[in-house]
Amino acid sequence: LSNTDSYLFAYIWSSLICAMAAWGYYGVYRNRAVTPRKGASTRAMRRLTFNVSVLAFLWALAPGVLVTEHSEGVRITVSCLLAGLMSGGFALATVPAAMLSFEIILFTGSMIGLARHGETIDLIIASLLLIYTLVVIRTALMRSVMVVENVVSRIEGERQRETIQLLLGEFEENASDWLWQLDQDLRLTHASTRFLTLMGLP
Q1: What string of DSSP letters covers 149-177?
Q2: Are strands 188-191 and 180-182 parallel, antiparallel or unpaired?
Q3: pLDDT value at position 68?
Q4: For residue 23, what pLDDT is reported?
Q5: Which pLDDT score, from 0 to 100, does residue 46 have?
Q6: pLDDT at 135
Q7: What is the pLDDT of residue 89?
Q8: What are the 10-residue block averages of pLDDT along the chain, 202 residues in total?
């Protein structure tokens, strides 16, 4: 690309990045009064993955086109910038598809930009980026598994509590024993119906 074409591309590229950022902030502003949902639909996950992929593609264009004719220092700077962006995979750990798409697209863009030169420093940077990308992906996937296990454990805990409450309620209704519960200050916090009746309490 000539200097004029490079500048034109840079303006278009930066405008698209700003437009994506503005659109994201607008979505947050528009939904600020909406009650947060406990879960997300499949459609929402697909839309998130698509938006993340588009954003990653725009950032991946930087090393693939903008640094073709630039110095070694510029290539290293842009590679470091993309390495920093790749850490965003941790924030996307709860949506593995979006995280993988984000990481792979950024890594591919970096490799294309570095492969156009083929110098020793480019090979070193490519090797480091490969290792870094694999570490980010592996760590994010492990975090995703931990989040899923935590959610499943919490759901199972809620089910167990509901079952215990049902069994306790049935026991209170049919048993002849007095049942009550005190807090740490020895104040009555719960009592069975039979206990309240026998004690003459409302």
Answers
A1: HHHHHHHHHHHHHHHHHHHHHHHHHH--S
A2: antiparallel
A3: 54
A4: 81
A5: 87
A6: 92
A7: 85
A8: 64 81 78 68 83 86 61 73 84 88 88 76 84 91 88 85 77 65 76 68 63
Structure tokens at 9: 């591309």
- Angle at 85 (CA atoms; ends 125, 143), nearest 5 degrees: 105
Closest of 82, 45, 40, 89 to residue 64, by C-alpha: 82
Q: DSSP letters along 54-74, please?
A: HHHHHHHHIIIIITTTS-HHH
Q: Which amino acid is at 69?
A: E
Residue 193 tokens, joined? 């119906």
Enter the pTM of the model: 0.66
Alpha-carbon gap, residue 123 to 91, rounded angstroms: 29
Q: Are 107 and 133 in contact (CB under 8 A)?
A: yes
Assess contact for 109 and 60: CB atoms under 8 A.
yes
Rounded-to-integer distance, Cα 92 and Cα 144, Å: 9
The CA–CA distances, whole Å, from 53 to 35, 48, 89, 149, 150 equal 27, 8, 12, 27, 27
Distance, in Å, from the CA atom of 137 to the CA atom of 192, rounded to the nearest integer, reads 53
